[in-house]
Design brief:
26 strands; 35% helix; 845 residues; alpha+beta; single chain; ATP binding; 5-stranded antiparallel beta sheet; 20 helices; 6-stranded antiparallel beta sheet; P-loop_NTPase
Length: 845
Amino acid sequence: MSNPLDALVPPDEDHFFFTDDDEIDEETRIYRLALLRRIKRDREALNRQRRRKMARRDADSSSEPEGEGEADQVNGTAKVVANVTPASTTDGKGGTPKEGEPEKEKLVKLDPEEIGMSVGYKNLYSGKEDKRGRFQWQTTIPEDLGKPAEDAESEKWAIIVRHVKTYHDPKKVLSVHSIVVQSPLLKELLKDVLAGYPGVTVGLKRLEFSGRFEPLIHRWPELVKSIKELRERTDSDDAKADERLKHAELLQELLATEFKDSIDSATDLKSQGVMTYEHLWTLFQPGSLVFSKQQSQDRIFRLHGSRYGQDRNGNPVYWLTCQYVDYDGTRWGTNKLNVCIPAYEGTRPITSLQTQPLDFHGDKTALIERLIERGGKVETLAGSHYRAYNGVGWRMGNMNVKEKYTVKGRVVIDTYGWNRFNPNMSVYVTALHVKDVPAAAGTGGGALAVGEYGGEDEYDDGFDSDDGGMPVDGFFADEEDEDNKRVTLSDEQKMICTPLVRGYALKEKLWLNFFVNAVQDIDFSSRAFDSLVLPRNQKELILGFTATQQSYRSQFDDVIEGKGRGIILLLCGPPGVGKTLTAESVAEEMKVPLYMMSAGDLGLDPRHVEAKLQGILDMCTRWNAILLLDEADVFLEERSLHELERNKLVSIFLRVLEYYEGIMFLTTNRVQTFDAAFQSRIHISLNYQELDTKSRKTVWKNFLAQHDLAQISARDRPPKALFSAAKTKPTTNGHLEPTSSAPADQTDGLAAAETSPADKEKSEAEALHHKRTLPHEITEKDLSRLCDMSMNGRQIKNILKTAQLLASKRGEGLSYEHVKTVMEVTQHLHNSNQENERTKSSLFN
């Protein structure tokens, strides 16, 4: 019996090709030879199968129980069919197989030395899939296998266009799925058209576009312009100009036919200054500049990518990933922020969108100039700076909710300190020299770092990837590193720079984000140190000591590195003699931050006190700040055998202060309660005595001079108008009810009478304001009588403040009579304090 496959196998492989196949390409020749080999293998398999059938038939007719088996080695397993008698063949359950059933093949393992030793490879093919897409591997080629759609023949065409079936569209049954540009002439044209477009490399061998064809649609005007220029150059000497034009027109015709509706609609909408939600993708081109308003701040971003998606509540939105310039404490770089445009019905003016292309802004030139100036301010605040702030600061709290604070006072702008002492909200950027290619519209991609506005607009659906907010190699870069020298920002980088700076509010004791336009220079007081009532040599010693220590603190060290570099000054004495003022005036004179630490800043739990105290000391050391621990006896009181919790706090202070590298002022009026271990840690101790007559006179003069300066400043400001409590009674028709029933011919006189009291009231208010801002009238004789009274500086200030309020109420200048009246009213408190002191003195003496 002949094998039907014998007719397909020629005696020689050269006869497998037809006479007219001499010019076929090499790929087709290789394909046909592979097909021939598969046919030969199938023919051999069919022959083996026939021989096995014949062997079984011979075994049935023979009385010989034994026969020869034939093995077919497949992937290291030998399939052996034994020629046995029917009586010896079972069905696997101890019985004989039924008539007509094929006999089962027994699997026999190969010799381990033969495994993997055959030269060649075994082909396996996926079988037919079931409903769940599952399949099994098989050794035969699938019957429905066809020829590849793209082969050597398809490579000769300028463009390969792939089509897919279209449903739910009555106008067409096929739509373009993707195209592959193969023409080198087209690639040369597109190289100029798509120059600078992110995510597109025109020089690839297979330049492929798919989806909405965003690059070609966004650059449609440039493509049309280039083709128009080609038509004008067809008469030139370029031999390929005509062919290049044909290729270009072919691409234009393809795009115009497939995307005619989208192109025409987008062009028409833009010309009218409106846009629909469905065509937003045609408005935003990656790499372009967009304008947006974030937290009431005008911002310009460089668009990184865009896509349609959903917000955290599942509402449809159009996402825009925007890029801006930021500072991470050591270098300038770029960061990303997600903003979205919620879905809307119909058309909407482009200028009303929260985010819009910069070209549609009404006052583009003025906006750019303003933002460049603002970016320049941010650039000047890179590093650590001591400034004043008057505005709103915020930070991210629990559940990504912004906590806002009203800040009016001194702040320290320090992004490096923000990252170090506030690591959960650290800022990390991509260096400016690192190429960060934006993603094409609708394709996503790119690494999205923790942005300046936290998670307000962020989404997590695979569109971005986060580095976890960790620094490179796990440590913060050194500010003084040569590799991290700050570069000078260009105007464009300043334009897209963040309006936020990070810093520490000294009064609120919080790390906050500040708006750069609310940051101001500090107006330091030049009279603070001069008004300090201390002996001249003592003042010179304090100022010189602290200034010198601040400049040369790193030159002297202990045997243990980092130990004993700081300076601790103890200021002790009765209340109101200028202990706290000393530290404040020294900081004002040196123009450095003053950190005022109290018991409330640290708490009483020893587990948390040490960490908070160490953080405060590190911040003060970094900023060259003066640390003031007011009423230090709370933490430095002598240890006892019964108060274990207090002993823990004292031991913490003893250990931590040993490694402090800055300047610390300790103030107390209970120095006798200090623990003995602190005596060796205090470098200078100054004892403040009660104010004598001369000192009190100086204090009175200082406060009176300050009073006059405040009065002059208040006189230049107009008085604040108070809201009247009187109500005008309206009539039933809504008009004001007339206050008199004068005849019509007396209307002019009535109007004059009504305006006259207003003018009179205004003049009286101005006169009263002038009287309330008069300088003081206290004479030298009055001053001598006042300084004879035993009072401290704080009491003098309080009496003068109260007396000034009394004088303003009466519309008079501050005089001795006002001071005397206040002292008579508050004398009982002073007498009570004196009585207590006399009682204590009599008891202990």
